[in-house]
Write a structure and sequence with these properties.
The model is unreliable at about 1-10 (pLDDT under 50). A hairpin with a 6-residue loop joins strand 12 (about 200-205) and strand 13 (about 215). By secondary structure, the chain is an alpha/beta fold. Helix 5 packs antiparallel against helix 6 (about 170-190), helix 6 (about 170-190) packs parallel to helix 12 (about 310-325) and helix 7 packs across helix 12 (about 310-325). It is built from 12 helices and 16 strands. It has a 5-stranded parallel β-sheet. Strands 12, 13, 14, 15 and 16 form a 5-stranded mixed β-sheet that branches.
């Protein structure tokens, strides 16, 4: 949790002048005033607003995969949870929002499962979508989309700065960005001399234990984590979360299996115990070196998404590799 004060010696940013127009995901979004009733559709969107000290401006949240950012439990407890997964369009509008902050376009977009951009525009409700889900990414095919350019944390930093400007809390936004940048630099330094001999697969979930797993493609947040630590991603796909057969994964024989831990229960394999049991008993997966050596690392699912938690992923994976002495 960040300290409340401003960074020493830094000049304060100029206040936001309204009306404010922000270019976001190819469209202009205009705010007549700082929002007073925001709805966050996506855990990352909610947590960024909390980090910015705006919990009292959040009228509702939805789409959570795990516990709230440590240190913000009391803030989150005061905010209405519209749904753990996808909320209805009606439940969002019922909060009378003057901003809807969205983590994924498949929730609010051209064909959003919660609502379309036009539905919100017709009601004059501004929608701000995380740049990490549209910049360098093609969501036209639906689902998790295809990344045409690698994710970087700069997209998250841009989101933090945009939301800070929308709410006129620019100094707080810059403090959040600087804190995350310092943590990232420190985590990278821990493994600056890594040999680069390790490989990994990031397993988010599966529609059923026996189904092909959703694993991380080469351009998403998990690949950013791996590149920061000198680890090779065995999956060579531009899809955000392609489904790849265990036979293919086993042939690549990764040094590490990074398995998502989450509270969400959309699929049976969301449960980390189900993942571990599958790896232990499946006749193909159980033969992988990573399984037999116990090189299975649990990671909060939010760290596998392009979020502020991606920094957690770098820190946790670096510590796990060091403590276990994993060299292959």
């Amino acid at each position: 949790m960040l300290a409340a004060g401003l960074l020493g010696g830094e000049a304060q940013a100029s206040p936001t002048i309204y009306p404010l127009t922000i270019r976001n995901c190819g469209s202009d979004v205009t705010f007549q005033h700082a929002p007073k009733r925001a709805v966050a559709i996506g855990q990352s969107s909610a947590e960024i607003l909390y980090l910015l000290g705006l919990g009292d401006r959040v009228a509702g949240t939805a789409v959570w995969v795990g516990p709230v950012l440590p240190g913000y439990e009391a803030v989150d407890a005061k905010v209405k949870r519209l749904a753990d997964n996808d909320p209805s369009f009606e439940s969002v509008i019922a909060t009378r929002p003057d901003l809807v902050a969205v983590q994924f376009q498949w929730h609010v977009g051209a064909k959003g499962t919660v609502g379309t951009l036009k539905q919100f525009e017709d009601l004059q409700v501004p929608v701000y979508t995380s740049p990490s889900d549209c910049t360098g990414k093609d969501n036209s095919t639906g689902g998790d989309g295809v990344r045409v350019a690698p994710f970087t944390m700069d997209l998250i930093y841009a989101e933090i700065r945009d939301l800070a400007k929308i709410f006129d809390v620019q100094d707080r936004g810059e403090q959040v960005v600087v804190d995350l940048q310092k943590r990232e630099a420190a985590a990278r330094a821990k493994v600056a001399s890594a040999s680069g001999a390790l490989s990994a697969v990031f397993w988010f979930s599966s529609a059923s234990p026996a189904a092909d797993p959703y694993v991380a493609g080469r351009n998403g947040a998990p690949s950013y984590i791996m590149q920061a630590l000198g680890i090779r991603n065995i999956i060579d796909s531009d899809e955000e979360w392609p489904t790849i057969g265990w036979e293919t994964v086993a042939r690549a024989n990764p040094s590490l299996i990074v398995a998502a831990r989450m509270d969400r229960r959309r699929y049976p394999a969301d449960e980390i115990a189900v993942k571990r049991q599958f790896l232990k008993t499946d006749p193909v997966a159980s033969l992988m070196d990573a399984v037999q050596k116990g090189h299975i690392i649990e990671l909060d699912a939010q760290a596998m998404n392009p979020t502020i938690r991606t920094i957690d992923g770098i820190e946790i994976l670096a510590d796990a590799i060091a403590s276990a002495g994993i060299s292959r």
